[in-house]
Each structure stands twice: as C-alpha cells, then as structure tokens.
User: Which sequence fits this backbone?
C-alpha cells in the first residue's frame, strides 16, 4: 500500500496539509482553523444546506465561493475563511435564520460575531431553521426515520411521523440535544400530544414497566449568556 | 414492420415510403400545438377528416405539432405551396377543401397585414415566417408526430445512418465540437466539451439524458419541438450516445402534458420496433436503450443534478457540482445531459457538417435559436432565428411590434431567472455572451415583451412569487432569501415600501446569488438585479411612498 496522497493547500495564509478526499472544512478543523457551521455533524454525511461554512477559494487566479463542508481539498488552492464577501454572506444568512429563531443560542453567538441584526427581516416565528440535523441523524445514525422533511421551498418543515415516533422516540431523544433551536423537541411533544397522548412506548431495554411520572426531558440551555 | 437490420435496409424503406407518396397530392396540415389545441384545433381537424372522407382519397389530412404562429391559431397549412390559413374554424373547412381541390386559395383566410391590408398567401411571404430560419421547427407542419414514417419521409434518421456506418464515435464527437454547438438549456456551455468529459470519464457505464423539463414562465419552445417532432430529438440522442459510449439514455419530461407524453412514448416504441433502439442498431454493433421518465411536479426538477436524483428515484434535490455530473451523475456514473433543442441540433450537424453549421449565427454563438415570443407582442408564437439576429428583427419584423400601438418599455429574457433590458437596447444581437453581459441572458429562450404600462416592481414580484413555490427548500439562502425578497417586493407594489427596503433587497439578491446551492437560487434575483441596473427609479419612487413609478 502506498501512502495516502498528501495535498498541500493554503488556508488563511497558512500552509495546511491534508489527504486526498478530505473536504476544506476537515482540513481547516485539523489545522485548528474555525469555520462556522449549523447543519454539519461529524457523524453525518455533509449536507451543504445552511451555507454558513462558505469560504472563498482561489483556483489558478479564479475566485469562487464554495461550501467548505463539501468542497474537496486540492493542490495549491488558496482558501480564505474570512473576507468581506464571506462575512456578508454569513451575516445575511444569520439575519434570515433569526427571522425564525431570534433567541437560538448558536444564532445569537453568530450574530455577535458577524454583526447580524436579528430584526432586519420579516419575522416568521417557526423556530425551526431547517438545518435537517434531526432528520438526517434519525435516518443515518439511528436508521429509524421517525422524523422527516415535508413540503418544499419556504414551506419545508420537519415533521415526526406519529406511527414511528410512538414506537421509537421516547427511548431515544438524541435529536433533541443536537437541535440548534430546541424545535425538534417541541415538534415531537406536539406530535405526541396530538397523535398518541399517553401511549408512548417505553425504551425497549427497560426492565421495569415505565414509570408513571413523566421523565425530565433534557432541554438545551436557553439564552446561554456565558 | 420487421426490424431494419442495416443502413441499406433503412434507405430502401425510406425510398418505398417516398414512392408511395404523391408529392402533388394536396395535404392539409392542421396544427395541434398547445395554443391551437387550446383554440380547439381538434374540431377543425375532425371537420377536415369528415369532409375528406366524402371526397374519397383525393386530399390527405394530417394533424401536426406546433407550426409556430400561435397568435393566429388554429393554423392550417396546405401543401403543395405551403398556403397558410389562419384562425380556421370548423365552418371554414368545406370551403378550404373545395378550393384546394380546384387548386385555388380561400382569400379571406390568408394573412392580411393589419396596416397595409396586403395579403400573403404562402408561408415564405407571411412576415411572421419570412424573417425566420426554421431549421429545427420547419419540419413540424410536414410531420404527424405519431408517425415515424413521416419523419423518415423528410430525411429523418439519415444522420444516424451516416454516423453509424461512416463515422467512428470520435469522428462524431469531433464534428460536434467543431460545430461549436452550445447548450440551449440556458448556460450556453459547449456541448462537445461536455460530451468529451463524459466519454473520457473512467467509469464504463455512461448515461445520456434529454432534459425536456421545460417549466419556466414564458418558455414553450422545447414543448413545441419535442411534442411536434420527437424523433428528431431522439435521433440526436442516439447519435450522442454513440459518440459518448453510452448504452442507456433517459428522456426526462413533465408528467402534466398529455400530448407530449403520448408522442414521446409512441416515438420510443416505434423506434424500438424499427430497430433504431435496442441491440445492434442497424447492424452496427451499437446497443442503445432509452427510458421515459417523468418529473414530480416542481420546477427545480429541471436542474441537472436534481433531475438525476429524480431519475434515481430520490426527491429532486440539487447537489453541489464540485464534481461535474458529466463525471459523476446518475448513480455516480458519468451522465451527459443536454436540453431538447441541443439534441435536436445534432442530426443536421452530422448530415450537413460542422462547416455548414458554423456558417450560421454569430461569432461565438452558432446555429439557430428557438425563441418563445410572448407578452405585449402582436404576434406571439414559437420563432427560430439565426444566433446574432438583432432583437429588433424578433420584436418588430417577426413579432409585429407592441400590441395596441403602445410603446416598448422592456424586453425580458429567460423567465424567472433571466433579466429585463430597456427598449433602447433593441439593436443588441441575440447572442449568449452579449445578452449575458447586458443582464438579460437568453436562458432557454423565453422572450417577453413589456409595454409602457408595465410596472417593473410587479414583474419582479410576479417572477419571485413563481420561484418561491418552486424551490426545494434544502439550502438556506434560497429557502429564506426568496420569501424575504418576495415580502419586500409585495410591500413595494402595495405602496408600503419602507426606508431600507432597497438595501435589504440588494443584500438579499447578492447573498442568494452567491450562496445558493443550485442555479435556481443563484439566479433567482437576476431579474431584480437587471431592474436595479436599468429601472431603479421605478423602485425608488415606491419607497418615497407614492404609488407612481410606472
């Protein structure tokens, strides 16, 4: 076996070594360079949906804006993780997402970093920013498909499928913790309340019958002001 | 019909078809294109058939695809002589039949110039047709799209015969490259280079695809082409597959056009029956199958990577093309996609050669272009002109100018992802690069005329409203940016613009363009950008609070 092909590229003026097949985001993370992401999760296939990880890439003098979570590393490319344009893209994207979830901690932090105005665009308080982490986690890691996307365009939303959720979700709840806005949890509870109140199935591995008292559901800290 | 086993057999069969047809026998071609069909050309055709029945076998009646002059439908063309009758009603049929038998013309149904009153009887005299070069759509009146024999009678599949029996795949590829055929779907990317990439990709299994998913507002030329002459597109596809080394192809089109579906399905079945699809085509050793595939109803299905996801059986969500689909497309195999009109150009390039093809058009855009002409124009319809033709010819000579004697305000190209230019740029040539520079890229070829009364803010709002409903919603800038733009534009049209709205629109337009995943989002703000370039006062006046700004 030959060695993995080593590729040298430049990120923010720094020479970075990577291996063929890596993405720019992976190469940057390896070199300790931070690129913001919202829809990225190391256990999941790269999605390229939130577009926050966009960077400027220069290839043979041609500048382009690409999502670093999907763009493959290549020899001698020059990557800039911050520039006037990149920052503007991130600022406007955060402003757009804050129209839905103005107090989501991750968005609040990003808004500070990029000077985003949470009140700039017309509010549509759906609280979901459609990053798809819950949907993809349930599909790729848990392979349960208890939550999916419905509808398209601006009407796209996540929705728990009652028949599956009733069987699978109470014993899992792992998507609650990765949701940037706590909407996954809210959507689940709403589904439960509407479709199968009090009928949820206990975790399969439980030895004792389910406790009659409601368990405490882990909740993301709201407005973490540290 | 037994399978044609060789090129010689096909030519022999073609000779038999021609021998069985008397060119002097009158033929009445009734247009059944979308517009004429809407004006019940079916009743006209039925009347001709009934009347023809009474006369024995003296006159042939043929139902055809779109002739082009949609404004004056139902269209009827009588051969020999290409006598054009317009706005024909079932009641006119006996008179036309009687005149045709006597070799006469029904004067009251021929074209009459609205200004001078001068009449034009034959197709080549009618102003709408006179200024066109109808290489692709010109056969439509001569073909019943349900009959492969009609296509063979006008020389169909001769290019396939030539490619398979006289040329190697590389020679075919070189000819298309030399012809500098550029993709007609919107990008204008050289088709030959794309073919070459797919051909050279290491993976052995390769696919070729016809993108017949025309869904943009004011675009109806691919529909006219594919519905009216499906075999021409299929012939192009088979030749392309031979050059590229693909053994499987897909025709991807809309599920909601029954006539188109019927014609394409029938064309594929007939080609298979004749041995033009399947194993060992015409004894050449080349195998090729083609499958028909339908969309799931949203516009973004026509985006190449979304289309390929759809063929795989997945939701039509675009994916980033950092690796091109010509290298990794359907099921990660090299997949060459071209639109209907691009494929339709291939047979003539093979038959008549690249030198002939490059003699037509402008310096960097060769051949002809199909244009759908609509909006505030006198003559709406499907038009074909050489690339490089001045817009003035399209708008005035062919289109007959602006409706109701009004003044032209803007010319809009490319539908919801195109752009508007002001009337004073009317002498610009129809050219991929030139029009892009002006901010109104040709796109697929939808040309919309707007008169002096047009409210440009409302136009942008209307187009954005269309796209908002067609986005898949995967990426944030498209999903979030477009509704925000729509919201602001809607407020402006209601006279409720707020200070800061234009800056908000500019930021949204810029970021949606830069950050969206696929072409739908990337170009969604192009109409708006072109209007900020040429019609900004129309927008500014809305902020001031008034409802003026026309």
Assistant:
């Amino acid at each position: 076996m030959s060695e993995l092909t080593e590729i040298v590229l430049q990120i923010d003026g720094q020479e970075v070594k990577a291996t063929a097949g890596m993405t720019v985001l992976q190469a940057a993370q390896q070199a300790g360079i931070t690129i913001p992401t919202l829809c990225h999760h190391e256990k999941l296939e790269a999605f390229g949906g939130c577009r926050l990880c966009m960077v400027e890439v220069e290839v043979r003098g041609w500048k382009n804006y690409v999502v670093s979570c999907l763009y493959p590393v290549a020899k001698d490319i020059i990557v800039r993780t911050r520039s006037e344009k990149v920052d503007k893209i991130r600022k406007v994207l955060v402003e757009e997402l804050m129209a839905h979830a103005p107090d989501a901690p991750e968005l609040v932090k990003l808004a500070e970093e990029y000077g985003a105005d949470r009140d700039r665009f017309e509010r549509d308080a759906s609280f979901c920013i459609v990053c798809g982490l819950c949907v993809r986690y349930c599909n790729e890691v848990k392979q349960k498909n208890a939550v999916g996307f419905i509808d398209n365009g601006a009407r796209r939303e996540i929705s728990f499928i009652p028949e599956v959720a009733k069987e699978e979700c109470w014993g899992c709840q792992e998507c609650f913790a990765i949701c940037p806005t706590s909407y996954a949890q809210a959507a689940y509870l709403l589904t439960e309340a509407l479709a199968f109140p009090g009928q949820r199935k206990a975790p399969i591995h439980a030895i004792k019958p389910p406790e009659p008292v409601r368990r405490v559901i882990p909740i993301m800290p709201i407005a973490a002001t540290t | 019909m037994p399978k044609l086993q060789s090129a010689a057999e096909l030519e022999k069969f073609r000779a038999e078809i021609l021998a069985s047809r008397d060119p002097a026998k009158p033929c009445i071609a009734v247009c059944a294109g979308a517009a004429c069909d809407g004006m019940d050309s079916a009743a006209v055709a039925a009347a001709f058939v009934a009347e023809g029945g009474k006369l024995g076998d003296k006159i042939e009646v043929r139902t055809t695809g779109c002739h082009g002059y949609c404004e004056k439908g139902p269209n009827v063309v009588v051969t020999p002589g290409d006598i054009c009758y317009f706005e024909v009603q079932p009641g006119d049929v006996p008179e036309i039949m009687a005149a045709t038998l006597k070799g006469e013309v029904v004067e009251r149904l021929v074209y009459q110039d609205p200004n001078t009153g001068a009449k034009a009887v034959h197709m080549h005299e009618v102003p709408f047709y006179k200024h066109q070069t109808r290489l692709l759509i010109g056969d439509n009146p001569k073909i019943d799209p349900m009959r492969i024999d009609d296509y063979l009678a006008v020389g169909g599949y001769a290019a396939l015969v030539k490619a398979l029996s006289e040329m190697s795949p590389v020679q075919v590829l070189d000819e298309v490259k030399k012809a500098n055929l550029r993709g007609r779907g919107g990008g204008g990317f050289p088709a030959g280079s794309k073919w070459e990439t797919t051909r050279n990709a290491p993976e052995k299994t390769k696919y070729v695809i016809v993108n017949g998913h025309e869904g943009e507002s004011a675009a109806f030329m691919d529909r006219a082409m594919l519905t009216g002459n499906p075999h021409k597109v299929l012939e192009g596809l088979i030749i392309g597959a031979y050059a590229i080394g693909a053994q499987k192809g897909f025709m991807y089109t809309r599920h909601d056009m029954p006539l188109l579906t019927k014609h394409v399905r029938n064309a594929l079945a007939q080609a298979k029956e004749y041995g033009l699809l399947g194993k060992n085509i015409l004894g050449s050793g080349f195998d090729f199958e083609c499958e028909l595939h339908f969309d799931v109803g949203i516009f973004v299905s026509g985006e190449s990577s979304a289309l390929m996801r759809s063929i795989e059986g997945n939701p039509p969500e675009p994916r980033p093309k950092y690796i091109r689909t010509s290298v990794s497309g359907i099921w990660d195999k090299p997949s060459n996609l071209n639109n209907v009109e691009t494929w339709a150009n291939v047979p003539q390039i093979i038959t008549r050669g690249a030198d002939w093809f490059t003699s037509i058009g402008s310096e960097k855009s060769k051949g002809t272009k199909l244009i759908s002409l609509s909006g505030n124009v006198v003559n709406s319809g499907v038009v074909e002109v050489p690339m490089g033709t001045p817009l003035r010819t399209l708008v005035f000579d062919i289109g007959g100018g602006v409706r109701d004697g009004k003044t032209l305000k803007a010319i809009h190209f490319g539908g919801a992802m195109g752009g508007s230019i002001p009337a004073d740029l009317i002498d610009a040539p129809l050219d991929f690069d030139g029009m892009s520079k002006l901010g109104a890229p040709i796109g697929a070829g939808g040309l919309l005329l707007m008169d002096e009364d047009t409210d440009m803010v409302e136009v942008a709002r209307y187009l954005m409203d269309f796209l908002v409903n067609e986005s898949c919603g995967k990426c944030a800038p498209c999903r979030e940016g477009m509704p925000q733009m729509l919201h602001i534009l809607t407020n402006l049209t209601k006279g409720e613009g707020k200070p800061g709205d234009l800056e908000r629109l500019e930021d949204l337009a810029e970021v949606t363009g830069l950050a969206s995943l696929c072409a739908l989002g990337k170009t969604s703000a192009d109409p708006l950008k072109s209007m900020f370039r040429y019609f900004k006062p129309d927008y500014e006046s809305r902020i001031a609070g008034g409802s003026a700004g026309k």
In short: Chain A has a mean pLDDT of 89. Residues 6-81 of chain A form a domain with the Ubiquitin-like (UB roll) fold (CATH 3.10.20.740).
